Amino acid sequence: MTHPPPPLGTPAVRSEARDKVTGAARYAVEHTPPGCAYAVPVPATVARGRVTAVHAEEVLALPGVHAVLSHENAPRLKEPDDPTLAVLQNDRVPHRGWYVALVVADTPENASAAAEALRVEYAAEEHDVRLTADHPGLYTPQEANSEVPAVRERGDFDAAYPAAAVRVDATYTMSALHNHPMEPHASTAWWDDGHLTARDSSQGSTKVRDTLAQVFGLEQGQVTVVSEHVGGGFGSKGTPRPQVVLAAMAARHTGRPVKLALPRRQLAAVVGHRAPTVQRVRLGAGADGVITALAHEVVTQTSTVKEFVEQAAVPARVMYTSPHSRTSHQVVALDVPSPSWMRAPGEASGMYALESAMDELAVATGLDPVELRLRNDPDTEPDSGKPFSSRHLAECLRDGARRFGWDRRDPRPGIRREGDLLLGTGVAAATYPVLISPSAATAHAAPDGTYVIRVNATDIGTGARTVLAQIAADVLGAPLESVRVEIGSSDLPAAPLAGGSSGTASWGWSVHKACALLAERLERYDGVPAEGLTAAADTEPEVAEDSPYARHAFGAQFAEVQADTVTGEVRVRRLLGVYAAGRILNPRTARSQFIGAMAMGIGMALTEESTMDPAFGDFAEHDLASYHVPSCADVPAIEAYWIDEDDPHLNPMGSKGIGEIGIVGTAAAIANAVHHATGARLRDLPLTPDKVLPYLDPAS
Ligand code: MOS
Q1: Does ligand 1 have an atom closer than 6 angstroms to the CB of 257?
Q2: What is the position in ligand 1's atom list of the atom closest to the CA of 233?
Q3: Is the peptide bond prior to 686 cis by the omega test (within 30 degrees of 0)?
Q4: Whether residue 523 lies in the annotated active site
């Protein structure tokens, strides 16, 4: 008997690829139940205040309008855990863009026209939307995002820093950023005999189901949420968002199915943003470059609706030798939209600052920046003292340097010219924690030799179906084609969201466990009984166990840039990353994750920016023309490689997350390359031409 190749670790093509490129794959609002109506929300046009009048009667007379919902008549919700979901419940306007009404009509055009026409009156109040490092409202929170302590101190930074032979003290700033997935946040919802069904564009429909049940006072069994195909999220769909609550409210109010796709121009105010940060980093080191004192102090903003603190100082607790350390966060609640998760929240922003400061320390000590990082590679996690389950940062740096041709680099800045262009190269390190959540799954063997795996995973463009089929086929010793994977509905076994780079580890573990149980039973039965055989698993007990290890993925990025001395435009010419992220389960889809996140890092470094307008209290960029996500022309040949890592302390697959680490470090590598190219140390992202040009001299 011949055996098929083991399915895990092979570059299987994603199973829904054909459906996606032929348009057969249907997204949340590509289903039109009979009698479907269309809803368009109305955003507040003041930055703070109260709604004093909603002139619903005027637009109810317009063609096709079924209803106008506002705090005056909308269904009452039970208070949600997430206060951004308490929509149309009272007259308060906490920020510009907060929804104050919802118009429902027979066509999308009529709904849009009526929403535009709706007159809302406000009692406006003074607003404050300016984040400054000395804002009087700054306070130290208990925790930052991901439930980490806001402040950690080790040793005596205040004594060690002044005593250091070499010191770097630099402050880095970043504008707000927005996730802007291709598919906007969208839902189709309907009620049928007390049962609420929603097709929602979400990263995790189990959580959406639980939230809808809670706010509408239903049993979980009375709600079904389907997220079959999702056009990206990058964290902005990681939590339930207003569109699904509004669609369900409108469907209940009108007695019809209701479709609601948030207009792109409204997204910036209602689905989260990466909060702007002001980050001061101080590094004290010996002449040998070994760090003796490290402080990373972060100032950021949240809204008055809820507290969200971008945990940017957290990677400094993981990365480098630092006997004396202070890592802290301060936050101020402004009249701005609520910030939230955006790809590698904390690590992406924090590693921009830390890895830029490391480059400045390399210059200050005269050491090569790769060598400097190798000298500060710790044996145990500095903050916890725990051993690493695996840490191959040094290998990533060395392998990346070799592939990139780093040894030919002349460290002197501002000396490589090609016509009007200045050229330079930069390096930065990356890290992302290993996160795993409990998940349930079932595995079924049919008498015809096929298998069905059921788990409420979500595929947001990553290849979740494919890799879960690979895991199942591997455990069952079955060909990949014999495994069908059902995901994307809350009626399936409960599972966590596609977020925190934890999906494959979390869902995969439960699939692995269910398949192992099934295989055991099949052996006992000596084959599949006539009615088939099913095994169910839940990984709660395994995942709850505390690991004695510090578990993180690591990586290194190398960038080559050109800065145009005439226009100030910076372009990336080469970008190369090497990652150590456990066992890579599917090299094809993994590579796509790495290079996608690196492309997002190019945006963070050079083009993406959400500017807060202080007068109107609004993010100025409302579309993909003004908020420039890298397009093909901005993205050079990106290369991603990985180190084969064998780590037995993670999960049965031996995998770490790979969705987010690619963006971490990329912006710093590019900014460091800009310094090498131009000799100017620019510490405010993004590095747009207006910021760069004043430092460039075309005549020299
Ligand atoms: Mo990611 S920002 O955790 O979806």
Answers
A1: no
A2: 4
A3: yes
A4: no
pLDDT in tens, 20-62: 999 999 999 999 999 999 999 999 999 999 999 999 999 999 9
CA distances from 651 to 430, 440, 534 (A): 22, 15, 23
What is the Cα–Cα distance from 470 to 464, expressed in whole angstroms? 10
**Ligand 1 mean position to 344 CA, how many Å?**
6
Distance 142 CA to ligand 1 centre (A): 22
User: Could you tell me the CATH number of the domain that includes residue 503?
Assistant: 3.30.365.10
* Domain final residue pick, 270, 293, 321: 270
pLDDT tens digits along 417-460? 999 999 999 999 999 999 999 999 999 999 999 999 999 999 99
Over residues 269-321, the pLDDT tens digits come to 999 999 999 999 999 999 999 999 999 999 999 999 999 999 999 999 999 99
Out of 228, 381, 560, 660, which one is annotated catalytic? 660
Q: Are residues 195 and 313 in the same domain?
A: no
Report strand pairing: 99-105 vs 37-43: antiparallel
In this structure, the answer to whether residues 511 and 567 fall within a common structural domain is: no
Residue 4 pLDDT greater than 70, yes or no = no
Residue 546 to residues 148, 262, 318, 643, Cα–Cα distance (Å): 16, 41, 18, 26
Q: Is the CB of 341 under 6 A from ligand 1?
A: yes
Same-domain pairing of 282 and 395:
yes
Query: What confidence tier does 346 reach under pLDDT thresholds 50, 70, 90?
Result: very high
Of all atoms in ligand 1, which is nearest to the CA of residue 501? Answer: 3
In angstroms, how far apart are the furthest CA atoms of the chain?
83
213 and 243 together in one domain: yes
Type of residue at 319: M
Q: Say yes or no: CB of residue 432 within 6 Å of ligand 1.
A: no
- Percentage above 90 pLDDT, the chain: 98
Residue 133 inside a domain? The answer is: no
* Shared-domain flag, residues 281 and 296: yes
Q: Mark whether 420 and 303 lie in a shared domain.
A: yes
Question: How remote is the CA of residue 617 from the centroid of ligand 1, in Å?
Answer: 26
Distance 405 CA to ligand 1 centre (A): 33
**Residue 479 shares a structural domain with residue 588:** no
Atom of ligand 1 nearest to the CA of 203: 4
Those residues with Cβ within 8 angstroms of residue 10's Cβ, 6 or more apart along the chain or in another chain: 470, 586, 587
* Total structural domains within the chain: 3
pLDDT at 522 over 90: yes
HSE-CB for 374 with a 13 A CA cutoff: 12
Domain, as residue range, for 101: 31-126+182-232+237-270
Residue 492 within a domain: yes
CA angle 43, 49, 53 (to 5 degrees): 65
Q: Is the CB of 499 under 6 A from ligand 1?
A: yes
Q: Which of 98-112, 508-522, 523-537, 571-585 has the lowest mean pLDDT?
A: 523-537
Residue 46 included in any domain? yes
**Per the domain annotation, does 10 fall within a domain?**
no
Q: Are residues 429 and 399 part of one domain? A: yes
CA-closest residue to ligand 1 atom 4: 235
